[in-house]
């Protein structure tokens, strides 16, 4: 291979690939595989967290475990891009996935002994593992697809991943169907989660190094086979001064901040045990719908990529304002003291009209989560195409995101009024919209600019590849 081929990432003509849906080293197959890895590991974790309090009656252990989790996640999210570039995807993912099994096992232990220490330690280890897994996932999802189909691939991944939450929600619903009182989930629920997480850990071995993944046009996802600690340390440190990353901080901080409120203070506070599991089936199912809807907008709404990005932000902003407004109307009907003093009757899915309103709201929260995060991932993916670069960008995003989540879980443990938590979540999302618009206007290239074509005035614009 000549120097020009090495720099461009193109294979020589005689080894150019033929399009195939089943080619193992194709971006499509690799994105599907990482989708199923996340289906089994974070998908099941989401189902466990979505029940509120990690399936326990008292949320204290889950809040403290999640604080530890997101604290270490914040650090290893930022470092994860460098670790991924040094270790490659297989070792990074196997190390990350295995910590999910331990976390579910810690709540199985807690079911019997009521000792928080194991759950908190497992949460801290899961934060390290999640930082590794999500950085690898983000790099694969944003860099492997063709630049004009990133929204579609993100939607595909998000749908497969959240199918894990749907299946995971069915596990506690089925296993606790006859337990209508507010009690902790049974052992079989946690064991079921652990089985899926173990399968995901083994499946991660099928993920290829990005230098071996070849797009249908013959271009590789990266030409870097191995990086070094020094290179990654310098590159990661520069992210904190990169204006593009700084514009994303409110969106990053807020994109997991709302989980604590939605899981503990809506699903966990308003519904009985079996109904919480059923609600999660629809919450994560709504995520599949939301990712497909916003993926279509981001890829197919306009010819101009910049215009598609701006429309995507506008759609999410309108939906977010409406959904959080509905959340405020619902929240004004109860407060934390009502829940603590058991002054409200827990809703069952057979409660009829009383159940319908809060259920639809919770469904819409899932819809908004997928739309918001898929939109942000699309913006990240529009900033570059190379896996080495995007692994750092997504690592920064996940690190800041996890720092916000750590704060959110600890806020709830201090019994902050529910309405204050809702207002904070709403404000974080709202602040992020104009900053993302500015980022898209200033940094996202249209397709002709990406290809280095003339803008019409004779000026050649360098591409982002």
Describe it.
The structure is a single chain. The protein is built from 19 helices and no strands. The chain has about 475 residues and is mainly alpha-helical. The radius of gyration is 22 Å and the shape is globular.
Brief account:
With 465 residues, the protein is mainly α. The protein has helices at 3-8, 27-40, 42-50, 60-87, 89-113, 116-143, 150-175, 187-203, 229-239, 243-247, 249-254, 258-270, 273-300, 305-331, 336-340, 353-381, 387-413, 418-443, 447-450.
Please report the distance between the alpha carbons of the first and last residues. 19 Å
Range of strand content:
under 5%
Q: Structural class of the secondary structure composition?
A: mainly alpha
Which stretches of 5+ consecutive residues score pLDDT under 50? 1-15, 451-465
Question: Rg, please?
Answer: 22 Å
- Per DSSP, the total helix count is 19
| Shape verdict | globular
Helix content: over 70%
> What is the count of β-strands?
0
pLDDT averaged over residues: 85
Tell me the major beta sheet.
none
């Amino acid at each position: 291979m000549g120097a020009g081929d090495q720099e461009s990432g193109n294979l020589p003509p005689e080894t150019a690939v033929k399009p195939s849906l089943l080619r193992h080293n194709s971006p499509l197959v690799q994105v599907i595989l990482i989708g199923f890895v996340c289906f089994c590991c974070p998908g099941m974790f989401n189902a466990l967290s979505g029940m509120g309090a990690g399936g326990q009656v008292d949320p204290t252990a889950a809040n403290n475990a999640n604080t530890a989790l997101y604290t270490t996640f914040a650090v290893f999210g930022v470092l994860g891009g460098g670790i991924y570039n040094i270790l490659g995807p297989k070792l990074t993912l196997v190390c990350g996935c295995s910590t999910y099994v331990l976390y579910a096992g810690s709540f199985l232990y807690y079911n019997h002994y009521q000792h928080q220490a194991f759950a908190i330690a497992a949460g801290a280890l899961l934060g390290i593992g999640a930082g590794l897994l999500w950085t690898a996932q983000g790099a694969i999802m944003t860099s492997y697809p063709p630049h004009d189909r990133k929204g579609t691939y993100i939607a595909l991944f998000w749908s497969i991943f959240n199918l894990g939450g749907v299946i995971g929600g069915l596990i506690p619903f089925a296993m606790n169907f006859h337990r209508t009182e507010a009690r902790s989930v049974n052992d079989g629920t946690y064991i079921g989660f652990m089985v899926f997480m173990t399968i995901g850990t083994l499946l991660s071995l099928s993920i290829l190094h990005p230098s071996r993944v070849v797009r249908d046009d013959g271009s590789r996802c990266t030409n870097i086979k191995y990086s070094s600690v020094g290179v990654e340390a310098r590159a990661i440190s520069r992210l904190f001064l990169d204006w593009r990353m700084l514009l994303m901080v409110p969106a990053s901080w807020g994109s997991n901040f709302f989980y604590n409120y939605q899981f503990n203070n809506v699903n966990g506070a308003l519904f009985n045990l079996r109904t919480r599991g059923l609600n999660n089936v629809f919450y994560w199912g709504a995520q599949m719908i939301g990712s497909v809807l916003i993926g279509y907008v981001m890829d197919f709404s306009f010819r101009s990529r910049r215009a598609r990005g701006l429309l995507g932000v506008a759609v999410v902003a309108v939906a977010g304002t409406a959904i959080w407004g509905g959340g405020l109307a619902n929240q004004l009907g109860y407060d934390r003291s009502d829940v603590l003093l058991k002054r409200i009757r827990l809703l069952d899915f057979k409660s009829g009209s009383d159940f319908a309103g809060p259920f639809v709201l919770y469904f819409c929260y899932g819809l908004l989560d997928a739309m918001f995060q898929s939109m942000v991932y699309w913006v990240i993916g529009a900033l570059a195409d190379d896996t080495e670069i995007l692994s750092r960008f997504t690592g920064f995003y996940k690190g800041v995101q996890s720092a916000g989540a750590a704060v959110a879980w600890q806020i709830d443990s201090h019994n902050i009024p529910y309405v204050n938590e809702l207002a904070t979540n709403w404000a974080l999302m709202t602040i992020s919209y104009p900053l993302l618009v500015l980022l898209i206007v200033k940094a996202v290239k249209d397709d002709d600019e990406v290809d280095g074509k003339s803008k019409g005035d004779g000026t050649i614009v360098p591409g982002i590849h």
